[in-house]
Amino acid sequence: MKRRVKNTLFTILLLTLTASVVLLIYLNLFASGDRNLTGEWRWELDMTKEAAASALCWLQDMEAVTVSLEEMESCMGELTIQVSLALEQTAHSEGNFRCNVLPESYDACNQAAYEAFAAAFRELLAERLRMAGYEGGTDETAVEALVTETFGMSTVSYLMACGPALLPPLEELQAQYDGSGVYEAAEGVLTREYDAGLPMGTRAESYFREGASLILTGEVSLDSLSPFSDDYPVIFTLERTGNE
Questions:
Q1: Which residues contact 147 (CB under 8 A, 6 or more apart)?
Q2: Residue 16 belongs to what H/E stretch?
Q3: Contact, 190 vs 204, CB < 8 A?
Q4: Which residues lie across from 210 on neighbouring strands?
Q5: In a designed cystine with 122, which of 83, 86, 143, 243 is the match (CB 3.0 to 4.6 A)?
Q6: DSSP 8-state class, residue 195
Q7: H/E stretch holding 218
């Protein structure tokens, strides 16, 4: 009987020890990885609505042409600008960060916006020509040739030179998002303190890891003067592009 009790106690102790070892392995291999945010993370600023609204406002000056904001957004497709957030852990759950708008992404987004705008502009111009009784061709190629002949440049170039600004200036976005400083990741809150002299101050967001994504789920109110408070979505997904 005593031997059976000893065997039972030994089995329980062995199972407890095994569970503890498994838990320690998990915490060291996985949980610690969640705390270490080192790497380059990127998210996308959606510029579709802003570009569509700017284009629509300009087009509304054209008589006999009607287009809705929803239709213009559909013409624009998905317009995004990438922002990079580089984190480098230097101590337990803290380190340095650098955040910046990617100029090449801005340029690509701006070009895509004007190309989409040009396509919509050609369609609306063709509609207006038909309504005016124009007897020439009104397909895309014919309208593009007409624009080039009239203005001495392509539709895209004409809209860039004479049309509205579809995106905010790069410098404006850089002033709003670019910066560097130190960060701390503790109790599910990522706190970034910008270097002295920058207007951003301190910014804190609730966060959690999900695979290769860093999910920011809203700003914790630490600095009511932060320019980010009205511009960040409630949920932000950042994808890792750099080192693990």
A1: 122, 125, 153, 154, 155, 158
A2: helix 2-26
A3: yes
A4: 213
A5: 143
A6: P
A7: strand 213-220
Contact 48, 72 (CB under 8 A): no
Question: Helices (DSSP H) in the chain: which residue ranges?
Answer: 2-26, 32-35, 48-59, 69-76, 103-131, 140-151, 155-162, 170-177
Residues near 70 by Cβ (< 8 Å), separated by ≥ 6?
A: none
**Structural domain boundaries of the chain?**
1-35, 36-240
Residue 88: Cβ-neighbour burial (10 angstroms; 0-12, 13-18, 19+)? middle
Is there a contact between 65 and 122 (Cβ–Cβ < 8 Å)? no
Question: How far is 43 from 45, CA to CA, in rounded Å?
Answer: 7
Task: Give the other-Cβ count within 10 Å of 240's Cβ.
Answer: 18
The pair of three-digit structure tokens given for residue 225, joined into one six-digit string: 């003067």
Residue 67, both tokens: 């287009």
The tens place of each residue's pLDDT in the chain, 244 residues long, gives 555 544 554 555 555 555 444 433 433 434 444 567 888 888 889 999 999 999 999 988 766 467 889 999 999 999 999 999 999 999 888 999 999 999 999 999 999 999 999 999 998 888 888 888 888 888 999 999 999 999 999 999 999 999 999 999 999 999 888 999 999 998 888 888 888 766 677 888 888 877 778 887 766 544 333 333 344 433 557 676 655 4
Distances from the Cα of 184 to the Cαs of 63, 159, 221, 238, 242, in angstroms?
56, 45, 16, 17, 19
